[in-house]
Automatic annotation (TrEMBL):
It comes from the Eukaryota. Gene3D superfamilies: Ribosomal protein S7 domain (1.10.455.10). Keywords: Chloroplast, Plastid, Ribonucleoprotein, Ribosomal protein. The gene is rps7. It comes from Udotea flabellum. PANTHER family: RIBOSOMAL PROTEIN S7 (PTHR11205). This is Ribosomal protein S7. GO terms for cellular component: ribonucleoprotein complex; ribosome.
Length: 152
């Protein structure tokens, strides 16, 4: 008789941590990515004296965009057109912005930079949050190009 595996239901924070670990992964070095994530969790705990999972969840929520900008060529001109994003595409984009912002920070080790970027994003400051605000600002400015019922 064959065994069947039961899938455990993951919490939302567990899913985001798994996604974070996958995005940190470079050249198959899963243990290194895990260690970086663990050190950044410890740094968040030490700096804020709060649950690091709540800080990360809040940071991801604050940096997740609800729109993206696609360019379309209409009549010889190129227009930026805002398109709504679902959570399945918005969350990875926000995580990517957080990781890129942490990589661009100067100074400390990557795990400290990542912890600082999570803390900043949870407070609605930092480069990742500003990137989201910039995208939303462009989308608001170009909302006139969105026609209701059209397939732009």
């Amino acid at each position: 008789m064959a065994r069947t595996k039961r899938k455990k239901k993951k919490k939302n924070s567990d899913a985001s941590l798994v996604l974070l670990n996958q995005r940190l992964l470079r050249h198959g070095k899963k243990k290194l990515a895990y260690r970086i994530l663990q050190k950044s969790l410890i740094n968040i705990q030490n700096q804020t004296q709060q649950d690091p999972f709540l800080i990360i969840e809040k940071a991801i929520r604050n940096t997740t965009p609800s729109v993206e900008i696609q360019t379309r060529r209409i009549g010889g001109a190129v227009y930026p057109i805002p398109v709504e994003l679902g959570l399945d595409r918005g969350i990875p984009r926000g995580i990517g912005w957080i990781l890129n912002s942490a990589k661009k920070r100067s100074g400390n080790t990557f795990d400290a930079n990542l912890a600082n970027e999570f803390i900043d994003a949870s407070k609605k400051i930092g480069n990742a949050f500003h990137k989201k605000e910039e995208v939303h600002k462009i989308a608001d400015a170009n909302a006139r190009f969105v026609k209701k019922g059209s397939n732009f």
